[in-house]
Design brief:
This is Glycosyl hydrolase-like 10 domain-containing protein. With 472 residues, the chain is an alpha/beta fold. The chain has 16 helices and eleven strands. The chain has a single domain, classed as Alpha-Beta Barrel (TIM Barrel).
């Protein structure tokens, strides 16, 4: 596998800033202020759209993220609506006969696409590593808000229904049609951008934003694969449905609050002893994800002659247990793994789960969930534990973030783990979260993303990266 540097300070820069601010100005900012050694971007280009059309920038995050505003305006605006096009012309021969096809290049591709290639070339000329981020299971995969699977490839609950209104649009990772498309996409990207150092796969898992999504995946492709791999599909379906029935009746919320009195570990052990099909389901999701990533790692290695690394980026523990991302199982197949600390999402997830359990305003239930997920360093304030406004610190624990990184690194063994911090929030909070990620990861951090990084934030990140000390 591709060797990985001992230290890395990366910034994710979406193509729209390379288009609007200019590659050289952005790269100057990242290197001189933040001391960046790497950047990540994506293979699309972007244009403004009429309000209400296309997708909102910043992303709406299931409605909760409507409070978000950009620190660095685009076309003079801190929130706007956008449309995208591929930044490259796909090689359609790679996708011949597949269910999913790449997005059609258009006039925006031809006009703006060369800017991305030029920016990548400029970054490499400066000695920066370059990562290219795509979606793992949202064809065509260039940007999270644009795309999605056909009905036959969507993940399903044990009764065959879907979970409407999900934040993510991920397909079932058991779908061979989705896997075939992703393999073709990796070959295409290795052809179009042979100079990049890594391709990052976002959400190579079953994202746990919605509580009911914990009980994926009983789609036809997943059921077929479970039988082929020898998993007990009947017990998985029976115990997952029984738990969902308890949720609907209100029994699950009371049981969780009572069980957590003995601690999260004891609560989990009692749950899996009573309903072993849930543990079988967790094992199955991990097997699906590992199979998916092993195939993609092999494809990219062949397509790039081993030059381009594959880096999956996933939820931190214990979310990763529910999402199916097994750090220990994935580690042998990849050069590095990313662990995402997009901490404005954590209160949103907590309230969604509590609401699904029938107790969105119940402080006991919120506290039990926060403890089970290890989100804070002490008792939570339910009034404050919500999606933060732009100038509000994220209501999560710094020590909790360190524990999550330590757990992932322990499971990953010798495979490097990159902490993905987030630039959304006030400068002091962004710096504190970056410091935590930098220390706990051993100096391997990517910050998402440039649009939220004012010059003050870039300066604070740079000071920590250069000195290791607290900047604020």
């Amino acid at each position: 596998m591709t060797p990985f540097p001992d230290r890395m300070l990366g910034i994710t820069v979406m193509p729209e800033y390379l288009q609007t601010e200019g590659a050289e100005a952005v790269l100057d900012n990242l290197q001189h202020r933040a001391g960046a050694t790497a950047i990540a971007t994506s293979p699309y280009v972007l244009a403004q759209a009429p309000d209400g059309q296309g997708g909102r920038e910043p992303p709406i995050d299931g409605g909760a993220g409507a409070v978000r505003l950009l620190d660095r305006p685009l076309w003079g605006r801190r929130e706007l609506w956008v449309r995208t096009a591929p930044a490259f012309v796909p090689d359609t021969s790679l996708y011949r006969g597949l269910r999913y096809q790449p997005a059609e290049p258009d006039a925006l591709t031809l006009a703006e696409g060369p800017r991305l290639t030029a920016a990548i070339t400029a970054a490499k000329r400066r000695g920066l590593a370059v990562h290219l981020q795509v979606q793992a299971a949202i064809p065509p995969g260039y940007r999270v808000q644009f795309g999605g699977p056909l009905p036959e490839d969507r993940p399903r609950l044990p009764d065959g229904s879907e979970v409407p209104g999900r934040v993510d649009l991920n397909a079932s990772l058991a779908s061979d049609a989705v896997l075939d498309y992703q393999r073709a996409l990796l070959r295409d990207l290795a052809r179009a951008y042979p100079m990049v150092d890594a391709i990052r796969l976002d959400w190579p898992e079953y994202p746990p934003y919605a509580f009911r999504a914990l009980f994926f995946d009983f789609s036809p492709p997943a059921c077929d694969l479970a039988r082929r791999l020898g998993f007990d599909l009947d017990s998985m379906r029976r115990d997952a449905q029984a738990t969902l029935d308890d949720v609907a009746s209100g029994a699950a919320a009371h049981a969780l609050v009572a069980a957590m009195a003995g601690g999260a570990t004891q609560a989990a052990l009692r749950l899996f002893a009573a309903r072993p099909g849930l543990l079988e389901l967790a094992r199955f999701k991990a097997a699906v994800t590992t199979r998916f990533l092993a195939a993609l790692a092999e494809t990219l290695h062949e397509a790039s002659a081993g030059r381009i690394a594959l880096i999956p980026q996933a939820f931190p523990p214990p979310f990763s247990f529910a999402s199916g991302f097994d750090f220990a199982a994935v580690a042998p197949h990849v050069s590095a793994m990313g662990i995402k600390f997009y901490t404005m999402h954590w209160p949103m997830i907590l309230h969604e789960w509590a609401g699904a359990l029938g107790g969105a305003q119940d402080p006991r239930l919120l506290s039990a969930l926060a403890t089970a997920l290890d989100l804070t360093d002490g008792p939570i304030d339910p009034a404050r534990f919500r999606y933060p406004e732009p100038e509000e610190p994220h209501p999560v624990g710094l020590a909790a973030q360190s524990r999550k990184i330590a757990a992932a690194r322990a499971a990953a063994g010798t495979t490097p783990v990159i902490a993905y911090s987030h630039g959304y929030g006030p400068p002091e909070d962004v710096a504190a979260r970056f410091q935590t990620a930098w220390d706990a990861s051993g100096g391997r951090v990517f910050v998402n993303r440039y649009g939220y990084l004012s010059n003050d934030k870039l300066d604070a990140i740079g000071q920590i990266g250069r000195t290791g000390g607290t900047s604020c």
